[in-house]
Amino acid sequence: MAPGPDLHGNYQDPKKEVQCHIMPLSLSSKNVWMVVLLSRISWTVGSISCPKECTCQYLTVNCTGKLLEKFPTTIPLDTRQLVLAQNKLSSLPSLELHVLSDLVYLDCSSNTLGKDLDFTFVSMIKLIYLDLSFNNLTQVTFGTFSQLSSLMVLKLSDNPSLVEIEKDSFANNTWLRHLDVSRCSLMFIDTSTIRDLPNLRSLGLGENPWFCNCSFMELCSWLKESGITILDPANVTCYSPVFMHGLKMLEEVQEELYYKCYVHFSNQDYLFFGLVGFGIFSAGTVLAWLMGVCAVIYEYLTASGEDDKQEEETEN
């Protein structure tokens, strides 16, 4: 194209115009775009091995609602987000999860996972989000999540068979910010289990059959003082013993347990104990007096008997 005027009559060289559009793109910018392009091409090539039951997009594998009974194979190794919700998985193979070391998001909600998950999530040190809600988990131990040192969100709600979370179960999850154990079958949780999570911001405890004995006072005190957001606080209530049933843990339990677990005396109690003490003292005094009188009478009778005996001997 020959140089010529534009629509406004200004002279313009097409070559210079092309140069003006190209020059602002620096070499570093070109490299960045090249890396992004190559990474997407790499994922596209890797997506050839995408599980046939799932859908794969850039760094994401979604297998929601496919009624899977086994863990899907051929998942791309660089997957960052894996969704396995609403299936029929009863277990998670640690070997297959081990190779997904770049995974940061894992959703296994609404399955039939249960029994022992200890050391299932090995080598997943980048995992930030883990959803195990709506399953059949029975217990949580130190080995269940000990390898997830970067975990920030853990959802364990709606596991009706979950009856125990052992002390120090989250000792290695110090980055944990959100923990939900609502609607399980927990009766007790040691205060140190959640107190030792320095970054915890929200906690779900609702609709569990909590057994509110004297050991619960420490937990209630800590929940009030920590400033942590309690999810659905109206449903965090005691189930047993009978006299505590239905009491709200954050409002009523601490005060009730305080009077049940520690001895307190009113003015009437002190008056009663005073009267009892006075009665005991009086009874003791009277008893001592009677014993003294008996001792004096005994001594008198003994002395009189000896005098009579001596007089009889003298007469003889």
Automatic annotation (TrEMBL):
InterPro entries documented for this protein: KCNMA1_auxiliary (IPR051432), Leu-rich_rpt (IPR001611), LRR_dom_sf (IPR032675), LRRNT (IPR000372)
PANTHER family: GH08155P (PTHR46473), LEUCINE-RICH REPEAT-CONTAINING PROTEIN 52 (PTHR46473:SF6)
Alphabetized Pfam families for the sequence: LRR_1, LRR_8
Any one annotated GO CC term: voltage-gated potassium channel complex
Keyword annotations from UniProtKB, A to Z: Cell membrane, Disulfide bond, Ion channel, Ion transport, Leucine-rich repeat, Membrane, Repeat, Signal, Transmembrane, Transmembrane helix, Transport
Domain spans labelled LRRNT: 49-81
Major location category of this protein: membrane
Subcellular location: Cell membrane
Annotated membrane topology: Single-pass membrane protein
Molecular-function GO term, any one: potassium channel activator activity
Name by which UniProt lists this protein: Leucine-rich repeat-containing protein 52
Transmembrane segments annotated in the record for this chain: 270-301
